[in-house]
User: Fold these one by one.
Assistant:
Number 1:
Amino acid sequence: MLPRLDSIRPARTKLQVTQKGLASLVGVSTSMINQIESGRCSPSYETARRIFEALASLEASTAGHKAGELCNHDIVKLRPDNTMHAAISKMRHHSISQIPVFEGKVPVGVITEDGIMRHIADSEKLNLRSALVREAMDAPPPIVDHETPAHALAPLIRLTKCILVSRRTAIIGIMTASDTLKIVE
């Protein structure tokens, strides 16, 4: 016996999968998934079975992954006394949109493209070669333990854009939205 059809949408959203993504896995149209979730159509038993199998497979693929496995261990960092020009250069060089700011080994903030743009908009005179990262940085990103299950990371990433990963008291990696896509792969 299959689960109830009205459990498809909550299961799909919990797994952070779009209707298009689920449709692709099942071999049906995005419109079909939309109609099933909204109750406008009832799928055949075979289609419903494939939907629930795809959801179960996605859930199983995320169950074993941990933050420490998925994070990028090569953290690009800045200090609060670096210039915004240096921050922009690093962002461009590494094709990233945020960089954690550290004082020694302690994260004290994060500088983002948005934070730099906000600083530019709010400043009357601006010299990015002398303006410091501390003037535009936001609060530090959240820190999760390396054993944190992967399924708990996507909602947090959506809110904060990046997460630092620690083992004991040391920061060992960083995760961004692109890193969470590894879960789906």
Note: Residues 45-63 form the longest helix (19 residues).
Number 2:
Amino acid sequence: MTGKRMKHLVYIVALALIGLLAGCGPAKGPISPDNGKLTVIATNFPGYDFVRQVAGDRVNLTMLLPPGSESHSYEPTPQDMIRVQECDVFICVGGESETWVQGILESVDTSGMRVLAMMDIVDVVEEQLVEGMEHDHDHPEEHDHAAEAHEHEAEYDEHVWTSPRNAMAISAVISATLAELDGDNADTYRSACDTYRIQLERLDTDIRQVVAAGSRNVLVFGDRFPFRYFVDAYGLDYFAAFPGCSAETEASAKTLAFLIDKVKAEEIPTVLHIEFSNEKMADTICEATGAEKLLFHSCHNVTKAQLEEGVTYLSLMEQNVQALEQALA
């Protein structure tokens, strides 16, 4: 039996188990009977951490995507599907990288569940699919070349949380949902959300100050680019080897040459890469230009060690502020 057919069989078995649980188990209420807490599942790290900040240990919280894994290629386990069936609040991104989420939600009883999709909470933008030419309008010949290589229907950029302002909006909706379902702790959720909003506002101010003090406003990513909402929020231009959710790992020679020339011509001091990258493109550009390579974390996922250490969206973004200061120097 092929791996694909095996996965399909596992999925069918899991759905059968879910059906048995739904049909034979007691009706699910808004509060877990085990410890009197809401059960919340978030598919990725930003949603998981936003819940931590506004709810603390007042909910039973699970992150569905394992630390260090990639959401695009993730295959939910039977246990994952059973967990979703039994949760009170389910928080997902809502984009193409989580097509497997839709399969789960269509197969379980969601009547007693609140489903929050982060992309439904904020304004979304189309993902730009132009290799090496992100936000650049001075080189139409390269733009046309890349556009021909990526002809398909428009897709919306999923990485909405990379803007701290969006993080505030998402956290507020999470807090309001928890307060509605768990009235006994409503004031606590609201108070924690207010505190978190102040922290995010401070982060937003720090970023704006770094951008205002910078001697340039261009970022170069020798990598994928999941920061459209971030750069739009702060008026930054950018050049990248691949669009946000690209599965590609090798850029064209033309793209590589363009990025190297751009770094040299504008004397750009740093080339950025994202977490869990092989960093090959960034290394090649740095070797050719003498630029420094720096991590700029998208916060999409973290390692197991980072999760155990208690790393947060805010702490990762604060590291990005330091990287941004060097990149714009």
Note: The first strand starts at residue 38 and ends at 42.
Number 3:
Amino acid sequence: MTARIYISKHFPSYFYDEKSLEIERIIPSSFLTSKSNQYQQFANVSCYYNMDRISKEFIARNGDCNIVSLGCGLETAYWRIASKEATFYELDLPEVIAKRKEILGKGEKEVLLPYSMFDLEWTKAVRKDKPTLLTARGVFEYFEVDEIITFLLELKRILPGAEVVFDCPNSKALGYTNRYVKKTGNQNAAIRFYVDDPSEFAAKCHASLLGHETFFTKTREVVRKGRNLYTEIAMWLVDKKKMGNIIHLRLGGNYGEKI
């Protein structure tokens, strides 16, 4: 949230999160204190920016549809996207959902799901007769590759034809990413999940690869001014070496297919 607030204040034409700015005043300052530099703020928000864009495109194509946020935390995409057509399912652990409701409230077209994403009971609440997009921001990274493949194969069985978009590093970026995670105070939150070859990963999930782009592909096009030299170089390097990626899959099957 710190990154969303920072970028909203300094680069509002690129990314503006009114809901996060609204609740800034009620969040303890200790939670908002950030050790991140400008590049790290952009790295965090670029994920939101890209997933917002993909979600809006999905809604534009499908109209009445489902957007499922895996590990939603205090994510505010529901208010940023402000769709009158899509239903937003916010999924996280029960204690997180309780805190989310306390701080953010609940939108008219939001469904709050107090589950671990691996407890597939939550899928019973999702309308199977509507197109579904699942978004995972900073979620898959904390699990092993095989765990995520198994999870996506199960979702393919339950929600055939659904799409999923997630962020991930490649194997070369794991060391840097884990050093950054420790710097922010998360000593026990090591990053384990990575994807080097999106096509190969899609095949293991029996899924179609709909899209693959690096974190800053769009950001560097949109934000032309205000980035410092370190941010410029770091963005270029991450994109060149594909160290940060947004991957978009379609799970096998058709909407409404019988299980």
Note: The two ends are 39 Å apart (CA to CA).
